[in-house]
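Input record (one chain):
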Amino acid sequence: MKIINLIACFFVLTLVACHNNAKQQTQATEDFAAKQKLQGVWIDSETQEVNFKISGDTIFYPDSTSQPSTFRVVSDTLIIGNPPSHYPVAKLSNNVFVFKNQNGEEVKLVKSDSPDDDIAFEKPTAVVEVVNKIIKKDTVINYGSERYHCYVTVNPTRYKVFRRTFNDDGLAVNNVYFDNIIHICVYNGAEKLYSSDLKKQMYEKFVPKDFLEQSVLGDVRVWKIDSHGVHFETIIGIPGEATNYILDTRVSLDGKMRIGEMR
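The corresponding structure, as predicted from the sequence alone:
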């Protein structure tokens, strides 16, 4: 029994030692000297445009929609963000930084010595909002002898939508936008047929998951009325992109809501 206990203790100690060694090796792989050289504002060597600023463990971008990202340097490779993007480092000194972007093209930066280049980073990080205020729309539509009153209210929220893109130098950056919740209400005369909030998650059956995660519920518009009900044109898309999903949100004449493709 003592022999078994001794073997077990030895096994545990070996595991702990291996874990500590692995941890030390992982920590040792990060090039802290390179990280120190990267501190400061870096500009394009040709255009003199500000590319990014490095402070501590974080990269800041002058683009107001790009979120700061953590970084590290390991084995002559710049690793940015999570999930990580890797960029081979071709040259790094106190004043010159050359790396390869995601297309394999070399990007040459030089460290700025102008205080004016810090101005781009003094403003608080902003986000691009689809709308920055509540928008109310009021539409009257007739069907036969009946009169229907449709209300649409676009409400900006604080729900963030993240989208990864690449800047002009091929660096991965995360853009952030605010999603919307849109309230629709339908009356037949004085009778309320339907009233509810619409969220983009309600359309997941018709929009691919990857696209939906990067999209916002952009707008809802009264489209038409027929025997099936009042049809609302519902737009889901990525801000700044031309590709959108346009879906049919229908409120039947007896007050039931259905979602489908435009026909």
